[in-house]
Amino acid sequence: MNNATASLSAPPGSDAHAARERSGLWLMVAGGLMLGTLGVFLEEAGQSPLMAVWFRCAFGLLALTAWFAATRRWKELKLAGAARVAAVSAGVLAVLNWVLFFEAIERTSIGVATVVVHVQPFLVMAFGAWWWKERITRAQAIAALAALIGLALASGWVDGALSGAGGSSSYLWGIGLALLNSVGYAALTLIAHRARGLSPLALAWWQCAVGALVLVWWPLTQGWPPLGPAWAWLAGLGVIHTGIAYVVLYAGVARLTAGRVAVLQFVYPASAVGVDWLVYGRALSAGQLVGVLVMLVALVVVGTQKAAARQA
User: What is the pLDDT of residues 216-230, one digit of tens each?
Assistant: First the structure.
């Protein structure tokens, strides 16, 4: 039995189990911090969302291929039956989601767009109850309602309504695109949950492969970015924010309980808010920060409720 297998079978409370959870925690924190810088790479590249998404897919595909080659896990990429349909549909959906997200960042800000997208776990819960008749507890229902209130605060909509200033049409479009992106991610999550025999990293590889193929017409018809810093920023979107970040995050998720994963998922939007403030000076208002906190608490409640349901 190797170390990974031993830690998987380690009983709760043992040293091996504790070490596994600690490593999972730091892996998820590292992955979330990496993703938090994604918006900076996008803005500094100065390219259109479609160009940025193609580069993310192309370089992400190269990075993930290198990882599969190094770990000799090629068998995970073989598809059959429902897994093939899931991989292709998830790839198309992932490309659409990334385009929507990058468009939302351009119209709002890195922090606001990222926070709004993270209403996705509540949409997954709602879709599960609608399509598969999954039970929603009273605590989860209250948490979902609180998350909607938190979302209204975090997006800045409440601040604008109270001040009578409202928001520009571009900003409101950005919020709408981020919400649509969240719906897409919820659908992508449901596809991933139902894809039998397809590992998360294999699904990410196929998403990048499909995206690189579907969008290759854009740089071919619109022209390539000039050689220079733009290429480095765009390559970073694929290598850092897709290849490395996904490997690190999925490794962390595999070591943790659902409740802890729910909490640590918020490292990404929290770091995005911090990076947006540190790099570009775009700080959230007090009301928006309260909204972020409300969403975090609601996410923790939903995550711990799901974990308790699985253990029951």
Answer: 999 999 999 988 999
